[in-house]
């Protein structure tokens, strides 16, 4: 009986029904999630890996569902490979946003403009595929059996909402793009001409849950498979494999529905599911990923298992595996390929993990969704700790401070729980998965707590991670992103600022700490890695972290003449985008390692090599969590002026060197040689035996010890009689035009008399050198707009450092020197740099001393401080003694080895997706630019050391370029010789440059000696 409304009270009406793609429920028709079983011997049929028929509509309702009819005529449709993203095959365009939703925020509604892809695929079954008996067609062509079991149709990943039909019958609908969904289809199959129809919507209610800082790429992007499930086959199974570090014994129990038998041949175990076996085992760790082959037999099905014994706990405020604290040397990894988007093949997955292992990375956070399940198999095999993250992020609501955040709206809770269940059930049997993560950047809410409760009840063997609520109600870790070094140190001391609630504060202060994102690897950088690592190794509460991120998400594009470049946000005409913020990885889109990855490898190396306590010894410290050093060998070399004169093997002690301990080893006596110069010992720790991820001899760690010093060049004297400068009138020709009012000769050099500019050294035409303080700003110089701290890139431009002008105040000839006094400043600025160039020389050498005096209130650092000069384009080969082989800046020089290096000007460049300052070599004593590998050229020797950069375009041209193909080589090789350089930091989404790496504007003096290279040999 209904109750009438009071007079005058407005009548309520039920909200109008929403279309299924705006339904907040997880879907209909799907089976319950279960463990992934690639080792099953049951039959399967891959439906992907081929071309399907495809039709794109601009809206969700442009066409009805007639296309699902098996007899529908699709001959005029396009063809599309599956798996794929249709926007990468000419149907629409990709779009990138970091936080902002690329549509009006009105959950769960999406815009009318909702690109919708209809897919059709016709397939036949193998002749012996079992089908139900009684069907005429089956009797004629198939393999009828009384009880064929069931056949499942499995989708590994579809973005963002799918509706599915088979042979004209609707199977259901689902959301959850990076999660598997299965349908029972055995009764609908026919031997020939099966028609699978799938409608995929780019936007759906699910889009509000998948705001994950990546390209929006719709489509069926993972495999589609038919799985035969024989009568009595496994519906699901769970492997429990624990390790007791106090006894060395492992315990195995496998649950299976229905029950079956487990055999582990290597251990001699055979038992029923549900029973327990215990015995001595070798544990699984990321350093020693020991797996035991096992088999689960249920009915006629056999499933090959790989069992790793390990126990994960949070205990006494520490994260431990097998009883030991673990230090995470991790990276965040999105799934990405520059040609195929999030459709990533098995070879690329393995390549990623091999590269990680080769660069000392031991952990992966699967940001921000579960990866392809095969990736976790590889992590089991190769050895990486995995934080498996749920397919969930609602960052756009947090940014807007919008109370409609789905994680705090009970209508969405079933969808959140479905996502948690599909992740946990699929991935629960992987030993590499040691932490579950609820998702990323969703703020706080009851939905997250519901997820946490369900996961803890389902799998109490793994701790839980979530960063988005710093009160940590649902997390077993205190996790932060981009916390500055000082903040990390406070956390390490358990002295971080207190929460308002004492109970919450006490609980959080007792939790282990990780940086789930840090060291934003966007463009040149990240800087400050060494300082972070020292904190992680100093404070046991700090368990390391995960660099953001593994790969630049640049989509490959080609110019008309075939040159490849990589697109980022805005390159596809998006009305809302976040530019190249999508290119923030340690490897470039083509998976070439960036200098940042090389730096990270050195910073996190698990063996430290440095000076020993006694002269002539080396200290080797084992930084592994579990392993000793027996898997490594030590090589040494003795180099003078960067050239090796001797080398050999350095024996390790016969006894073990446990984790955390050190050993002092004597070095050989320095070799006898007549050669003189700066000498170094280099000691390398290399693999003693091949592994699945690297060959024998692969370098794991290295260190250098200075053996003998030399000054470059003598600071107060030149090695021959000083030359006196002489002024004269230049003959007609290029020199006359360049010199204007005459020229000055000083030793091997010719100068313009009116400006004091260097025109020629011996037979080498030159431009400059003159003071240079500008660099093409890096992503970290520019910083992120949301950063509260001062961003130097915009500040430098505001003060005109990118358009400095040079005024010559005087050109003076003294008895032994040419002195040029100048002022360098920007228009509309009172700031200036008084600069004096003092030139002296001998018959074959030219020496420059530069003094710089800042004028005005320079309350900000300089980008660089040095001189820039130009050489003809033919001087394209480079040799230098100093830091190398790659680039390095004040806070990114850990990987720079002192040595003698050779390259070309072209190879010195680092091809950041958005061009910016790059290529500087640190601690350079001398450098040569030559015409050919051994040809004549220019040699420059620094007073002490300098940064050396050479490129075929100016810093201004580099600064103006938006993509690598915008850079066109000119007729000049531009060389920077820098006395000082500002650090890099990671302010693109983190802290700026630490004070000790900032280049303060203050009085400076520095010098260089120039000579023709041929005369130096």
Main attributes?
12% helix; disordered N terminus; globular; eight-stranded parallel β-sheet; mainly beta; twelve-stranded antiparallel β-sheet; 1017 residues
How would you characterize the overall build of this protein?
- This protein is 12% helix and 36% strand.
- The protein contains 14 helices and 63 strands.
- Helix 7 (485-492) packs parallel to helix 9 (529-538).
- The model is unreliable at 1-12 and 734-739 (pLDDT under 50).
Write the layout of secondary structure elements.
Layout: E1 27-28, E2 44-46, E3 50-59, E4 78-82, E5 95-97, E6 113-123, E7 130-132, H1 136-141, E8 143-145, E9 150-155, E10 158-159, E11 161-166, E12 169-175, E13 181-184, E14 194-201, E15 210-211, E16 214-216, E17 219-220, E18 224-229, E19 236-244, E20 249-257, E21 261-264, E22 269-272, E23 276-280, E24 292-298, E25 301-307, E26 312-315, E27 318-321, E28 324-325, E29 328-332, H2 346-358, E30 363-365, H3 373-382, E31 385-389, E32 393-394, H4 395-400, H5 413-427, E33 433-437, H6 446-458, E34 464-465, E35 478-481, H7 485-492, H8 502-509, E36 513-518, H9 529-538, E37 542-547, E38 555-558, E39 564-567, H10 595-603, E40 607-611, E41 617-622, E42 632-640, E43 643-650, E44 662-666, E45 679-687, E46 699-708, E47 726-728, H11 734-739, E48 743-746, E49 749-752, E50 758-761, E51 764-765, E52 767-772, H12 779-782, H13 792-798, E53 804-813, E54 818-826, E55 832-841, E56 846-855, E57 864-872, E58 877-884, E59 897-904, E60 921-930, E61 937-951, H14 955-960, E62 972-981, E63 1004-1012
Parallel strand pairs: 7-8, 15-32, 29-30, 29-37, 30-31, 31-33, 33-34, 35-36, 36-37
Antiparallel strand pairs: 1-12, 2-18, 3-4, 3-6, 5-16, 6-14, 9-13, 9-18, 10-17, 11-12, 11-14, 19-20, 20-23, 21-22, 21-24, 24-25, 26-27, 27-28, 38-39, 40-41, 41-44, 42-43, 42-45, 45-46, 47-48, 48-49, 49-50, 50-51, 52-57, 53-54, 54-55, 55-56, 56-63, 57-62, 58-59, 58-60, 60-61, 61-62, 61-63
């Amino acid at each position: 009986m209904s109750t009438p409304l009071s007079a005058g009270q407005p009548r309520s009406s039920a909200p109008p029904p929403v279309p299924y793609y705006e339904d907040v429920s997880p879907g209909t028709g799907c089976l319950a999630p279960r463990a992934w079983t690639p080792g099953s011997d049951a039959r399967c049929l891959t439906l992907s890996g081929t071309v399907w028929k495809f039709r794109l509509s601009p809206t969700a309702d442009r066409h009805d569902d007639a296309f699902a009819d098996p007899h529908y005529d699709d001959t005029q449709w396009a063809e599309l490979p599956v798996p794929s993203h249709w926007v990468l095959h000419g149907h629409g365009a990709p779009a990138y946003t970091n936080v902002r939703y690329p549509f009006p925020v009105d959950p769960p509604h999406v815009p009318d403009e909702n690109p919708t892809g209809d897919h059709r695929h016709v397939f036949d079954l193998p002749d012996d595929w079992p089908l139900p008996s009684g069907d005429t067609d089956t009797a004629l062509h198939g393999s009828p059996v009384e009880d064929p079991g069931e056949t499942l149709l499995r989708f590994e990943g579809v973005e963002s909402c799918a509706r599915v039909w088979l042979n004209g019958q609707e199977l259901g609908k689902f959301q959850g793009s990076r999660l598997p969904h299965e349908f029972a289809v055995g009764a609908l199959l026919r031997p020939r001409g099966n028609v699978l129809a799938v409608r995929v919507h780019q936007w759906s209610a699910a889009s509000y849950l998948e705001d994950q800082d990546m390209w929006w790429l719709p489509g069926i992007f993972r495999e589609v498979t038919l799985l035969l499930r024989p009568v009595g086959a496994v519906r699901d199974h769970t492997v429990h494999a624990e390790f007791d570090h106090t006894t060395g014994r492992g315990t195995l129990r496998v649950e299976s529905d229905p029950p079956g038998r487990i055999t582990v041949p290597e251990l001699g175990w055979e038992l029923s599911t549900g029973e327990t076996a215990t015995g001595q085992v070798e544990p699984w760790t990321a350093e020693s990923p020991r797996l035991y082959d096992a088999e689960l037999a249920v009915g006629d099905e056999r499933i090959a298992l790989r069992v790793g014994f390990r126990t994960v706990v949070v205990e006494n405020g520490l994260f431990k595996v097998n009883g030991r604290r673990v230090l995470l040397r991790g990276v965040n990894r999105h799934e990405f390929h520059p040609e195929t988007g999030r459709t990533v093949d098995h070879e690329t997955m393995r390549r990623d993990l091999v590269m990680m292992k080769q660069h000392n990375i031991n952990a992966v956070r699967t940001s921000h969704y579960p990866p392809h399940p095969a990736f976790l198999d590889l992590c089991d095999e190769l050895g990486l700790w995995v934080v498996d993250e749920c397919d969930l992020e609602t960052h756009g609501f947090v940014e807007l401070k919008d109370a409609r955040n789905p994680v705090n709206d009970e209508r969405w809770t079933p969808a959140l729980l479905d996502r948690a269940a599909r992740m946990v059930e699929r991935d629960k049997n992987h030993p590499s998965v040691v932490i579950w993560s609820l998702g990323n950047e969703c703020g706080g809410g009851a939905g997250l707590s519901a997820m946490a409760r369900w996961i803890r009840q389902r799998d109490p063997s793994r701790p839980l991670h979530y960063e988005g609520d710093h009160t940590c109600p649902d997390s077993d870790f205190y996790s932060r992103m981009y916390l500055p070094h000082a903040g990390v140190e406070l956390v390490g001391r358990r002295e971080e600022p207190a929460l308002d609630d004492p109970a919450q504060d006490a609980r959080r202060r007792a939790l282990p700490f990780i940086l789930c994102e840090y060291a934003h690897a966007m463009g040149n950088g990240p800087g400050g890695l060494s300082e972070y690592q020292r904190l992680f190794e100093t404070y046991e509460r700090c368990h390391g972290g995960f660099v953001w991120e593994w790969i630049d998400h640049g989509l490959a594009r080609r110019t008309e003449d075939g040159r490849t470049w990589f697109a980022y946000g805005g390159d596809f005409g998006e009305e809302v985008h976040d530019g190249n913020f999508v290119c923030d990885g340690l490897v470039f889109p083509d998976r070439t390692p960036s200098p940042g990855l090389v730096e990270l490898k050195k910073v996190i190396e698990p063996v430290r090599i440095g000076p020993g306590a006694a002269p002539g010894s080396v200290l080797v410290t084992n930084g592994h969590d579990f392993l000793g050093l027996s898997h490594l060998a030590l090589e040494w070399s003795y180099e003078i002026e960067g050239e090796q004169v001797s080398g050999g093997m350095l024996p390790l002690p016969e006894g073990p060197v446990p984790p955390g301990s050190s050993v002092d080893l004597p070095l050989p006596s320095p070799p006898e040689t007549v050669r003189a110069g700066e000498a170094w010992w280099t000691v390398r720790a290399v693999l003693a035996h091949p592994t699945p991820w690297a060959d024998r001899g692969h370098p794991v760690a290295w260190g250098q010890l200075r053996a003998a010093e030399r000054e470059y060049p003598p600071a107060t004297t030149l090695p021959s009689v000083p030359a006196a400068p002489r002024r004269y009138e230049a003959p007609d020709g290029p020199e006359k035009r360049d010199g204007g009012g005459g020229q000055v000769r000083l030793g091997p050099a010719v100068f313009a008399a009116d400006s004091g500019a260097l025109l020629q050294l011996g037979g080498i035409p030159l431009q400059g050198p003159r003071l240079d303080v500008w660099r093409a700003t890096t992503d970290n110089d520019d910083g992120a707009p949301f950063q509260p701290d001062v961003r130097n890139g915009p500040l430098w431009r505001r003060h005109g450092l990118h358009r400095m002008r040079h005024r010559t105040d005087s050109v003076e000839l003294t008895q032994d020197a040419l002195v040029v006094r100048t002022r360098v400043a920007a228009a509309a600025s009172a700031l200036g740099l008084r600069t004096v160039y003092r030139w002296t020389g001998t018959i074959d050498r030219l020496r420059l001393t530069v003094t710089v005096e800042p004028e005005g209130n320079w309350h900000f650092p300089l980008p660089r401080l040095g001189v820039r000069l130009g050489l003809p384009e033919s001087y394209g080969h480079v040799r230098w003694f100093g830091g190398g082989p790659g680039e390095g800046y004040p806070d990114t020089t850990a990987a720079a080895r002192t040595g003698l290096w050779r390259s070309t000007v072209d190879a010195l460049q680092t091809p950041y997706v958005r061009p910016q300052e790059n290529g500087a070599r640190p601690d350079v004593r001398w450098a040569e630019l030559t015409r050919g590998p051994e040809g004549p050229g220019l040699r420059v020797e620094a007073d002490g050391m300098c940064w050396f950069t050479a490129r075929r375009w100016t810093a201004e041209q580099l600064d103006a370029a938006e993509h690598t193909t915008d850079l066109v080589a000119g007729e000049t090789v531009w060389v920077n010789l820098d006395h000082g350089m500002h650090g890099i930091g990671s302010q693109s989404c983190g802290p700026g440059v630490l004070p000790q790496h900032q280049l303060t504007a203050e009085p400076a003096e520095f010098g260089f000696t120039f000579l023709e290279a041929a005369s130096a040999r």
